[in-house]
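It would be a great kindness if you could assist me with a short task in structural biology. Thank you for your consideration; the sequence and its C-alpha cells are set out here.
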Amino acid sequence: PGRSGTFTADRLICGVPFAALRHVAFTPALSPGKAAAIAELPYGSVTRVYLQSHRRYWLDEGADGFAQPLDLPMELWNPSHDQPGRRGLQLGYLYEALARQVAALDEAERIRFFLDLVEPMYPSVRRHFELGASFSWTAQPYQRGAYAVYGKGDYDLNPRWRDVEAKP
C-alpha cells in the first residue's frame, strides 16, 4: 500500500476486481477493449452493519429476525438463527446509494445510523443492543465494490469490450 512496483512477465492472470484494477498502470498499455471494460464495468456498493444483542429479543416479538423494508435498499438478516446460545446477531445488508451513504460514516456513526433504521422494525433493539461492527466493500482499497454489475448485453455483446478474450 502506498508504494509502486514493477513486474515483468510474458503472461498475466489477473484476479483483481476491475474497480481496483482501475488504479493500476500497465506498460505497455492494455488493448482498447480491455481498458474500456476495466474503466466502464460498474460495481455494486454493499455495506454491512452488525448488531449484537445480549439476547434474541425479536423472538419474543414473534419475529424471526429477518426483514426487508419496502422503502429502503437493504435487508435485515439473522445470521445467528441456527447458532446455540442466548446472544443474537442482526445484520444489515445495505446496498447501492444507502450503502455508499453509510460507508462514508465512521464506525460509531454507522452503528447509530443502523440502530435508527432497525428501531421502527424492532422497537426493542436499543434496549438489548450490546455492540456493533461494520464492513464496506466499496471502502476497501483492493475491492472498491462488492460485485460486478453487468448491464444488458455487456457480458457478450458490448462492442467496446470485444478484444477482452485471452489470445494464445
The longest helix spans residues 107-118. The longest strand covers residues 46-53.
